[in-house]
Amino acid sequence: MRSIFIVSAFVLSCTAAQAQTAAPSAVNASTVASSASDEPVPRAERAKARQDCLSENVALSGDDLRAAMRLCLQAKFPGVRLYAQDGVTRDGKPTAVAARAACKDEVDGRKLEGSQRVAALTACFNARRPDLAQRAECRKEARGKGLDGADLRKAVESCAREAKG
Questions:
Q1: What is the pTM of this model?
Q2: Most buried pick, 27, 85, 106, 112, via CB within 10 A?
């Protein structure tokens, strides 16, 4: 087991080193060209990079594979922030987990209990992440209409787009 871990760490370090030295100008040109769109990296380009990374790390699984894929993908697109780090999403908002934790600490300091605590936690989270609060409202409305599965996702997406625009 230990030797597998050591070998996988070696493979990860070699992969990262190769990715840093392998044609960064081509990758940077594609990321600069795609920065004008809503997505930092076009979906097709991400899918191809994901397949490449998966084929490079075929021997790994679970958390090891997840970590290797994250390193590999980030190395393929060095100028683009692909993942949330340190409690901040790639677009600069606090992650839901970080927002909940901050709200919990804030409300714990006020020593509220019961329904007052729930209301304070909800208000705090809605203030920190109004986009997620809006999506939750959209989801609640769609479920009230009896939607489920793909129809639910479509309804939530369209509702969130309308509220955003």
A1: 0.55
A2: 27
